[in-house]
Amino acid sequence: MRNWRWVFTMLLYVGVVLKIGALELDRAQQTERISGSAGDVLEDDPVGRLKVFVYELPSKYNKKILQKDPRCLTHMFAAEIYMHRFLLSSPVRTLNPEEADWFYTPVYTTCDLTPNGLPLPFKSPRMMRSAIQLISSNWPYWNRTEGADHFFIVPHDFGACFHYLEEKAIERGILHMLQRATLVQTFGQRNHVCLKDGSITVPPYAPPQKMQSHLIPPNTPRSIFVYFRGLFYDVGNDPEGGYYARGARAAVWENFKDNPLFDISTEHPTTYYEDMQRAIFCLCPLGWAPWSPRLVEAVIFGCIPVIIADDIVLPFADAIPWEDIGVFVAEKDVPNLDTILTSINPKVILRKQRLLANPSMKQAMLFPQPAQPGDAFHQILNGLARKLPHDRSVYLKRGEKILNWTRGPVGDLKPW
Ligand SMILES: *[C@@H]1O[C@H](CO)[C@@H](O)[C@H](O)[C@H]1NC(C)=O
Ligand SMILES: *[C@@H]1O[C@H](CO)[C@@H](O)[C@H](O)[C@H]1NC(C)=O
Predict the structure, then answer these.
(1) Are 187 and 289 in contact (CB under 8 A)?
(2) Average pLDDT value for residue range 163-168
(3) Would you state the torsion angle of the CA atoms of residues 46, 51, 53, 59, taken in this order, to the nearest 10 degrees?
(4) Distant-in-sequence, close-in-space partners of 56: CB < 8 Å, separation ≥ 6
(5) Backbone torsions φ then ψ of 229, nearest 5 degrees
(6) Domain spanning 13-35+207-363: CATH 1.10.150
(7) 144 CA distance to ligand 1 centroid (A)?
(8) Which helix (H) or strand (E) is 178 found in, with range?
(9) What distances in angstroms separate CA 238 from CA 120, 229, 232, 245, 328, one per listed residue?
(10) How far apart are CA 196 and CA 182, in angstroms?
(11) Ligand 2 neighbourhood includes 404 CB (under 6 angstroms)
(12) Which residues pair with 262 in a beta bridge?
């Protein structure tokens, strides 16, 4: 009896999938404009709204580091390098620091990779301190505000907390010298010590050309209901389980490994990008940090992101209507994921797909070379422009000091 009910339910599910597939064919490339302020903000042009001064640093803070390991150009933290290149030739750049609204320090703190290509954040605090020391002694602008009109790109797992394990990151907190600066970071979680008010949350870097080269015809039916490739357990770093992804990925595997609606596995096939374009829902669960490149991939490939990461702060959340394009599932509700997703009305699914088909949404997720209007570089500038003018209170009185140069772990104080 139970088996029969299962088969019946399955047929119903498959029916829904096919129906959506068919409806999709009808829509033939329809897209929907984002209504209201979100869409308008997404298309803002930052040029003329802010001026950025780029500090010139010795190349050991940026170019030399990259020369040592060109893999830094393709990993998910590469935005720090591309943002530097972008700003150098951007019309918002000013060579006159006296007229600058924002100051940018080009220091590549994520480009220290293990042989396997994993970025290590252990040298970042010393490097950052060293760079700040340098700009504060060679130019008068840092001391004027102690960094309140400076922004830094810190795309690490937990931003300027500079550790990839959450517990350690929380223990460290945001590097003291960056407490007054604006942080542009991939990490975003509400009420977390590693995300301070006024930070700008950005997408992780995903290679635009590579993704472009895997595009399949947009009217290809989406015959996969739920798709996921990635780790469920991280035995190396979390041998007893439960810490990695706060158990959410393990719950996905344990509940749905045998469910035919779920195409999930640890193996990354060569058709990974194509498969996302054949899927209706793409799981975007937290890993060690709440975000992963899957968020970007899902948007680019029009697969509805199923965001499983409680309290996540999503990239450019003031410009991208994440609630409309994605599905949010609480970590504790993962065991009901099948019911949650199969009970979404096909009309709602189609609307999300139409919104996802909007090119401006995809553009905002990417750091293309060369830059293009509306891309992630421009969204970052929009975010900085929206924070202007600076409040008068950011300017310190002559001789006033708020930050403490010697605060923080002793190890961070060693010269870099
Ligand atoms: C800024 O303040 C630091 C620390 O007090 C000091 O060492 C430095 O000389 C000051 N910079 C300038 C340009 O006056
Ligand atoms: C700065 O921080 C150090 C280390 O925490 C502390 O010993 C020192 O008293 C602080 N200085 C001031 C002026 O608060």
Answers:
(1) yes
(2) 89
(3) 20
(4) none
(5) -130, 130
(6) no
(7) 10
(8) none
(9) 18, 19, 11, 10, 26
(10) 9
(11) yes
(12) 226
pTM of the predicted structure, to 2 decimals = 0.90
The residue contributing the CA closest to ligand 2 atom 5 is 407
> What's the CA dihedral at 292, 297, 299, 303 to 10 degrees?
-110
Please give the structure tokens belonging to residue 405: 């140069």
pLDDT tens per residue across span 98-137: 999 999 999 999 999 999 888 899 999 999 999 999 999 9
Residue 385 tokens read as 């422009």
Q: Report which secondary-structure segment, H or E, holds 115.
A: none
What letter represents residue 34's amino acid?
Answer: I
Q: Rg of the Cα trace of the chain?
A: 23
Ligand at shortest distance from the CA of 402: 2
Cα–Cα distance, 215 to 89 (Å, whole number): 30
Separation CA 188–CA 403 (nearest Å): 24
End-to-end, the C-alpha distance of the chain in Å comes to 69
Q: In the numeric block, which tokens belong to residue 336? A: 């009901």
Mean pLDDT of 352-373: 95
Q: How many CB atoms lie within 10 A of CB 202?
A: 26
Alpha-helical segments (H) within 28-45: 37-42
β 102-104/52-54 pair status? parallel
**Best mutation site among 172, 177, 400, 406 for ligand 2, i.e. most ligand atoms within 8 A of its Cβ?**
406
If we measure between CA atoms, which residue out of 203, 197, 196, 215 comes closest to residue 82?
203
- 279 close to 226: Cβ distance less than 8 angstroms: yes
Distance CA 219, CA 152 (A): 41
Domain residue extents for the chain? 13-35+207-363, 43-205+370-409
Does residue 161 contact residue 413 with C-beta atoms inside 8 Å?
no
- Residue 279's DSSP bridge partners are 224
Tell me what the mean pLDDT of segment 21-41 comes to.
55
What digits encode the pLDDT tens for the residues 53-96?
999 999 999 999 999 999 999 999 999 999 999 999 999 999 99
Ligand 1 environment, Cβ below 6 A: 136-137, 140, 143
Amino acid of residue 344 = I
Do the bridges between strand 327-328 and strand 224-229 make them parallel or antiparallel, or are there none, so unpaired?
unpaired
Task: Please count the other Cβ atoms lying within 10 Å of the Cβ belonging to residue 221.
Answer: 13
